[in-house]
Design a protein that fits this description.
This protein is of the alpha/beta class. It folds into 2 domains: about 140 residues, Aspartate Aminotransferase, domain 1, CATH 3.90.1150.10; about 230 residues, Aspartate Aminotransferase, domain 2 (3-Layer(aba) Sandwich), CATH 3.40.640.10. It is about 45% helix and about 15% strand. The radius of gyration is 22 Å and the shape is globular.
């Protein structure tokens, strides 16, 4: 008889959790279900033909390099392209500041391994990105939370939280996942100032920054931070490490992200990456470079913005038309998500089960809170369904929501009596 394995697992695996989003997606594969659950880009906007041409070109002209081992830091031309792209948003860096990762999730994993000792407190927004919590949990993190509102992280509550001495802050300033809100310019300035005052670094996660559908671009935290640490010999990175990805602007199947940090931090991250996978796929990096070069990425992002803006507008209109008045939601200026708040007492998982009966899916809010759910919420994705599907899906979802709101009100009324 084979010996049981459970007692052999490392202690840290006790904190490992499956992504509820991945688990819920298994339930939404039926073709009749309209899903607002995953943060999936629209496959219609994938530049499929350009990828095909790039694959052929790489294999025809550089196969021996593309199919070989490569440097852990990443394919240099792709890193140079990233440096040039970031410069358009004010981020001044060199290739020595850039590490290519196997998706932005690996970036979070490497940073967690580099910075977190078991029991360290990490300051996060409430709610925050589930994937980050998974990476931090595995390293034994504890949390200090600061709530968000319509302008992002509530800075007026931040200084008190910083006095508890968190190891670092994890922030998504642009079109936050799951809230869809954007940190205002004034709050960004205050955040960077407080980071400098308390010597507590910021991990700035920016997967959606290029997907703005209205309003003006706001400087990234890493830009504001560097402005505060100008030295006689030029720019020096201060307290911000910046993360981004190609998943939302080219294709998530590439599994290509990147970290921007001081060279000494990159060196340590490279060592950790070598322990994980030696390097990100050379072939994938070379293909991505061939696809993105010569200005194509800028033009392609414009196409994505037009598509997703229509879908966001369709969802906002449908919510206004169908949802009960007791329910509110955010109005994102970009990104992939909006955040719905329901009356207190509505059970998100019970609502999910009811929604599935109406052939529509979403992600309940509870997993996005590091220290337990605060209120009743759901995250809705608008990028992966057509405007027609969005309207029909929200109509179906409104029936489930109305049912649960009425049920909760009835329970409260009975309890009061």
């Amino acid at each position: 008889m084979a010996a049981p394995w459970a007692h052999r697992y490392a202690q840290r695996t006790k904190t490992a959790k499956s992504s509820i989003i991945r688990e819920l997606l298994k339930l939404t594969t039926k073709p009749e279900i309209i899903s607002f659950a995953g943060g999936l880009p629209a496959p219609e906007v994938f530049p499929t033909e350009r990828f095909r041409e790039a694959c052929d070109r790489v294999l025809a002209t550089q196969a021996t390099t593309a199919l070989q081992y490569g440097p852990s830091e990443g394919y240099r031309p792709l890193r140079e392209l990233i440096v040039a792209q970031m410069a358009k948003y004010g981020i001044v860096a060199t290739v020595d500041n850039v590490l290519i990762t196997s998706g932005s999730q690996q970036a979070l994993d490497l940073i967690a391994k580099l910075l977190i000792n078991r029991g360290d407190r990490i300051l996060v927004e409430s709610p925050t990105y589930l994937g980050a919590l998974q990476a931090f949990d595995l390293m034994g993190a504890e949390y200090v939370t600061v709530p968000i509102d319509g302008l992002g992280l509530q800075i007026r509550l931040l200084e008190g939280a910083l006095r508890s001495g968190p190891k670092f802050m994890y922030v998504l300033p642009n079109f936050q996942n799951p809230g869809g809100v954007t940190l205002s310019e004034d709050r960004r300035t205050q955040l960077v100032w407080l980071s400098d005052k308390y010597g507590i670094p910021i991990i700035e996660d920016d997967p959606y920054g290029q997907l703005r559908y209205e309003g003006e671009h706001i400087k990234p935290l890493v830009v504001l931070d560097r402005a505060n640490v100008l030295r006689d010999n030029g720019y020096q990175f201060g307290n911000v490490i910046y993360l981004s990805t190609f998943s939302k602007v080219l294709a998530p199947g590439l599994r290509l992200g990147w970290i921007v940090a001081p060279p000494e931090v990159i060196t340590r991250l490279v060592q950790l990456k070598q322990c994980a996978d030696l390097h990100t796929s050379t072939f994938t990096q070379m293909v991505a470079y061939e696809v993105a070069k010569d200005g194509f990425l800028d033009e392609h992002v414009k196409t994505i913005r037009q598509c997703y803006k229509k879908r966001r507008d369709s969802m906002l209109a449908a919510l206004s038309d169908f949802f009960p008045p007791e329910v509110t939601w955010t109005r994102p200026q970009g990104g992939l998500f909006l955040w719905v708040t329901m009356p207190a007492g509505v059970d998100g998982m019970r609502l999910f089960d009811e929604a599935i009966r109406h052939n529509v899916a979403f992600v309940p809010g509870q997993p996005f809170f590091a220290e337990g759910d605060v209120g009743s919420h759901m995250r809705l994705n608008f990028s992966n369904a057509t405007p027609e599907m969005i309207r029909e899906g929200i109509r179906r979802l409104s029936i489930a929501v109305a049912h649960e709101v009425e049920h909760t009100a009835g329970v409260v009324s009975t309890t009061a009596v």
